[in-house]
Amino acid sequence: MARPHIEPFCDRDEHFKPMRLLGFGTGMHYKMLSMDTDTGACSMTAQFDGGYKRSPGFSWSEYEFIVIEGELKVGDRTCRKGHYFYVPAGYALPEISSDQGCLVLYMYNTGEPSHEEATEHHPSAQTQLYHDVDSYMDIPWAAGNVAKPSVASGCMIKLLNYNPNSFAMTFLYCMTPNFYQDNISYHDCAEESYHLWGTSWMMQFGDVPTGGYFWRPAYINHGAFASEYGCIALGRVDSKLFNHFHYNPWTTPVENAERSEARLLARDPLLYHWAFSKDHNHPHSPKDFEMFMPRRGNEDGHDTEHKSDGHRHDHWHGHHHHDDHSPHSHDHHHDH
Amino acid sequence: MTFKNLYIDHERSSEAEEWVKEELAEQEERFAKIEAAMEDLAPTREKWYQEFFDRLRTNGFNMDGDDKMPIPESDLPVKPADRKDQVVWKYGVDSDDTPRNGKEG
Questions:
Q1: In terms of CA atoms, which chain A residue is nearest residue B47?
Q2: Calpha distance A153→A176 (Å, rounded)
Q3: d(CA A90, CA A123)
Q4: Does the distance separating the beta carbons of B87 and A163 come in below 8 Å?
Q5: What are phi and psi of B16, to 5 degrees?
């Protein structure tokens, strides 16, 4: 049943454990932060001893990681703290190593940690999605108003990863010294955060210090918010982030979800009535026609490029190409 | 999750199966500790709630960004008599202990 509510938690209160899963080698230690009870997807802080090396290879799960302290070599590149990686499932990274040791935050998104030794990507890997960036040096801070209504000024973000389908995001966020925001928030999505440095405070949970962490399922109250000396953290949401602000600390997740539903009715009444009509009550999930509609595709090497020259025609049904003026027949009726 | 939802199907090894099982057992312990700690924090949190309400009346409620609106005393919420102050909800709306429609689980 997904990941449970882990909040607040501080990894500094725990001991590192040696990683014993095959493929990770010796010299990797970890502290588990949260784990999905169905899939084994998890987030963990990992410490690599000085001299650690891991062979080139890929994971069956997509994963993200960011260097917290020290230096990590990825192939020939030396990556310092703040360097972030998004690695699709099946994407083979080169050897990683650390001469002096380092601390890394790992997030395996769709399955348990795995490492298959390989120098080539898995055929199913969506390699074009891979990206990495030195998030401390190469991305400027932007206003935190990625969602409306927004957080108060003094909370800023750097966007690291974005899913255009689900609107899920991975981002750095910071709070300036003396930041405060007097409201209670909840979201329609799960939210995760790891404090890379500094302390923030939330009215429900108290202080979240350096190494502080939470995984919070949707619709759970959090806030008011404050940070006396400032903080920087890595945050994630697993779908669209919307800030439902209010000031009643005693509401339950179900009441919050019902409020979200009421707000959906107020904002998108036609969509609401369509979605919740008994006649359109889909047992699994609504159907996005773009996922299922017939498409031209690339049938037997069929070139879908526009071909009309007055003699030839655009077509997307299955038949063979022929040279101009050569006789040919179609295997089914169509209109020209 | 982020989350591009990518996963390549494979058979999980018995070693990985065992590892996940152990981690989930430890997670249960971790959750129980957090839940207990947050129950212990309830008296302090009650003060924080009152300070929050004071600030709402005087400094205002952050409606959007820095736009603030003072909340009159009469509009402040009242704690339902039959409800404990709960801030940790194991699986959110899917929790077995989540009150539904005002009824305690």
A1: A203
A2: 9
A3: 8
A4: no
A5: -70, -40
Closest CB from B66, B83, B93 relative to A253? B93
Given an 8 Å threshold on Cβ–Cβ distance, is B85 in contact with A32?
A: no
Q: Tell me which of A250, A258, A261, A285 to substitute to probe the interface with B (most B C-beta atoms closer than 10 Å).
A: A250
Contact A173, A153 (CB under 8 A): no
The answer to whether the Cβ–Cβ distance between A182 and B59 falls below 8 Å is yes
Q: What is the pLDDT along chain A (336 residues), one digit of tens a residue?
A: 599 999 999 999 899 999 999 999 999 999 999 999 999 999 999 999 999 999 999 999 999 999 999 999 999 999 999 999 999 999 999 999 999 999 999 999 999 999 999 999 999 999 999 999 999 999 999 999 888 999 999 999 999 999 888 899 999 999 999 999 999 999 999 999 999 999 999 999 999 999 999 999 999 999 999 999 999 999 999 999 999 999 999 999 999 999 999 999 999 999 888 887 766 666 666 676 767 777 777 655 555 444 444 444 444 444 444 444 444 444 444 433
B63, A6: Cβ pair inside 8 Å?
no
Rounded CA separation A135/A148 (Å): 24
User: Which of B1, B22, B69 best probes binding to A when mutated, by most A CB atoms within 10 angstroms?
Assistant: B1
* 3-state SS assignment for residue A254: helix
